[in-house]
Amino acid sequence: MGHVEEKIDLESDEEIPFSSSQTTSKAHTFDFEASHVGSHAKLCTSWVFKQMQIRPFGSIYIILIKAKINMLLPFGPLAILLHYLTGKHGWVFLFSLLGITPLAERLGYATEQLAFYTGPTVGGLLNATFGNATEMIISIYALKNGMIRVVKQSLLGSILSNMLLVLGCAFFTGGIIHHQKVQRFNKAAAVVNSGLLLMAVMGILFPAVLHYTHTEKHYGKSELSLSRFSSCIMLVAYGSYLFFQLRSQHNFYGSLDEGHVEEARNSVAEDSDEVEVPDITQWEALGWLAILTLWVSVLSGYLVNAIQGASDSWNIPMAFISVILLPIVGNAAEHASAIMFAMKDKLDITLGVAIGSSTQISMFVIPFCVVVGWFMGKPMDLNFQLFETATLFITVLVVAFMLQEGTSNYFKGLMLILSYLIVAASFFVHVDLSN
Questions:
Q1: Which of 36, 72, 201, 326 is the least crowded, having the fewest Cβ atoms under 10 Å away?
Q2: Runs of H (alpha helix) within 86-132
Q3: How does it sit in the membrane (predicted)?
Q4: pLDDT tens digits, 384-406
């Protein structure tokens, strides 16, 4: 006891930096003496308070009320009411869009909470599965309704949004805040992701070239068969990438990312004098993942059904809605996270969020939709038409050149943002003749 009290007195006189393991062990020691040390046990008291919050009502507050973005949650039920009461597709689409935005962010949060219990390896697989859950659900609903062009354009828009807008905003804000120094990131991991993105471009480019050069052996059928075969190969490649990243080269890639994550957690703990612990339990995280995914599925149905009506009532091209507006909703969580970590000079995590998400969509979600369409009997293929394919190809090249030095600054971010504005303007004036 005397030794513990001596430590507490030292802590009250001066601040001593702690590592994550030291802080955790001391928190458990102080927990036993909390009733005796009073104000000296602020660290332990905050930890106990957090533990008291991890109850069903506490998790409801944390998931549905605490975050400011949850102010948009009422727009979801309002969109359903408008669908049945007025039938105005423009407002139904807008309110569904607003209602899905906080759900996408909360899905990412629940996945992060679950990763506390599963560890980094399973946590990486969970992020691969749920990180783009919103895009996958919207795409499957659109595919079920035969809106194949909407599926292709929305997934293409997600890649463009992550690579240009999300990464650009992160580089810009990080460069402004840390303008005194050059921000650096792991160039080796960026090169691997760039290679996967170029492989995805190759898989998407060949069916389009085959179609527009009229060199198919069986018109229409060869293009679809090539797309399905390439999709299976891309899924195998993405599975191999996950194994390579999380198992085979775990010490090379994983340790670096985990080190930055741990460093970020330690800095948060030091700033707030609190132990970094999960806000909700493992079963609560699983339950909220199921509830949020179900609610996203419901709203996605109304959103997809209102797209055509919104395009007609607002006089906005379907391509602009699919490529620009829909992906902004699905990337809400990635956008906020990437900027936050760039502001903390954690660019490896920023790249993992922005470029990693683009890799997931191009190498997993798009081939997965082709395979799902195969089982549904829908002719979903990898032919994204000439204009969209060229846009993707140029975007991947631009971002690859930006990442080749392994450094970041606000000017690179500004160039990526301006490039995204050019892409958005292109799709606003683009007339899709394939509908």
A1: 36
A2: 89-130
A3: Multi-pass membrane protein
A4: 888 999 999 999 999 999 888 88
